[in-house]
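During the reporting period the student researcher (J.K.) took over the structure-prediction task from the postdoctoral fellow and processed the backlog of single-chain submissions. One of the processed entries is reproduced below for the supervisory committee.
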Amino acid sequence: MSALTLTAPPADRPRQTRWLLRLHRPALYAWGIVAVVLAALLLALAGPLVDAAAEGWRQYQGCGMNPRCSYDQDAILRYKDYYNYATIALNLLPFAVAAWAGAALTGRELETGTARLAWTQATSPARWLTVRLVVPALGILVGTTLLAWLHHRAWAAGQGRIDTAKQWYDRFTFHANGPTLVALTLAGLAAGALVGLLVRRTLPALVLGVLVAGGVRGLAELALPHLWPAVTRTGSIDRFVPGVGLNVDNGMLTRTGAHVPAPPCAGTADCEAAYKDFVGRYDVFHPASHFWPLQLTTSALVLAVTALLVTGCFLALRRQTGQLRTAKAPHRAA
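J.K. obtained the following structure tokens:
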């Protein structure tokens, strides 16, 4: 029986977990530092930073047209900058995880032969891969869930108090504000692991893992507005008020009630001629009440893609270990 077909005993699982944590200790420390720093920043954004910025806006609004009136502009800009830093950092997490998973979690171990050494020591390839997916996934699940909750708390603290606060439908804010952050980061882990298994080289796996994670993010961006029924608002051409929220579509209404794109025009006379056959305008959008339905449906889509990537990981591993098993099998005498 080949060593690759051995089944690891139940007691081997804690040993593999300890070995994995020891092997990737720098990444574990880095993740802990990033999580603590971001959590501290988000707590500050929900507390003293937002309070100081709100006071600055109150002062600014009380100035009216007085050019000599002073207000705390530094507090306003500080809140804006730190909010943007935290939000962008959270949106970059899936790409960082994909890069690490491709380069270090699977790619480097296959390139250096560490994985094959583990497979010859009573550790089945399937169990080896399971531990390398489950252990990081648990850390990602706990950490990103906490960070997404803290970000949503910080964002909500500025609503109605900060005039330049980001709206819920801002894409960076949206993905940092809920479970889509968790789903995208788990997808990054699966994408990187799959690329590492296929490429088996550190640097190419790092680059391709980021690209695949970007593809998953792009798919989520394209599908997001269409995953929940949108609201349609219509009105006259002159008095139409567009809806406030995530825009899906907008244009003109014909006399038959058809929806068509607004025609381009330049100048009053040109626009009057172009719009003369229309009876109104329409706007298709998602209001604020659609935040959680869109979060949950987008997360479900991304998790479905993640499941496909994980399945691909095990299929790629089975193909590799099957080839290795064939190569190591003794030749029968003729």
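The committee noted the following: The first helix runs from residue 12 to 23.
J.K. will present the remaining backlog at the next meeting.
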